[in-house]
Amino acid sequence: MKPLKKRLLTPGPTMVPERVLEALSRPTLYHRSPEFKEIFLDTRERLRRLFKTEGEVLILTSSGTGAMEAAVANLFKPGDSAVVVAGGKFGQRWEELCRAFGVKPITVEVEWGKSVSVEEIGKILTTTPDVKGVLVQICETSTGTIHDVKAIGKITKELPDCLLIADGITAYGVYDIPTDDWHIDVAITGSQKALMTPPGLAVISLNEKAVNRLNDNPTAYYFNLKKELKQQPKGQTAYTTATNLVIALNEALKMIEEEGLENVAKRHEMLAKATRAGVKALGLELLSENPANGVTAVISPEGINGQDVVKIARETFGITIAGGQEHLKGKIFRLSHMGYVDIFDILTGLEVTEFALKKLGYNRFNFGDSVKAAMEVYEKETL
Ligand SMILES: Cc1ncc(COP(=O)(O)O)c(C=O)c1O
User: Fold this and answer.
1) Residue among 277, 287, 294 at smallest CA distance from 336
2) Which residues form the Aminotransferase class V domain (predicted)?
3) Which of 11, 187, 221, 311 has the most CB atoms less than 10 A away?
């Protein structure tokens, strides 16, 4: 039997609500028109509310990595050094970006699945002169792990020349993150994760400390944040933005505000707890010691390749879950519960996981065990 529907349970791109798809399909607007300008300014304001920042928020036409690159190219000069938290694929990306732009990374290696030691960062920052920034993920998606960015912010806020730059690509819209209160100087996200919009837009926030550090001549041309900063408060962008995507993002942000950010965060917490309970009911273990609310990384049982679980889910049921990356390929699989996701999506993901595991010869459970455990969490968390 061929799968009838396609469902995305990957940590991005995620499923896009019908309302957002409808907004996406409206006739394309000219990016300098008064009509679009109004929508653009409204989107920026909604993003500032999402980020809980009084600082600047810029919308970039790129995937999330574009905003990471923009941060490195605009806030550092070649020869600067920065602490990089490398606890997974995306932490490594910070390191690669630093090297690409001549910034010296002081890498804090973290075992994949563990959170960084904040004490270690503190020690480096007190013993190494002239560190210009700390680059970290709020959620390291490759391992489904949270880093304690709030605690790092308590250290960097005392250092006038050191920026805290947080990749919140799978954290904003999953958690209610008070960017300013946590002293995050630069925060980044992307449209295709918890913001329930197709891929193609990145968002970067900058507080005063960060704005004051922006290079006049960054080591980038397209991602010139000073240029964007001149334009975007007027509802303009330096170059042609993806107008349909901005309109779609505006609709998605309206949905988040209608549900209420606090409720959105509670929903993600409930879904994450239900997913964790579900996989544990199958006798499986989580990879992360500090699991995130946007994605759950599950260790494949002995002798079972996680990529096969992913393949069976996709080919038999049209459900896309994610595998592991780099050295975790085959060792884990990841179930996402980020964005436009409800309990029924989770139950589906769990049941499909059961089916795939049984097919691959892992039999230490009965059909429905994970669903039962997830529903028990749902009942406890919501009724
Ligand atoms: C934490 C994190 N950082 C960076 C990225 C890269 O974003 P993009 O693929 O949008 O460039 C991702 C994508 O999954 C991510 O999860």
Assistant:
1) 294
2) 10-326
3) 187
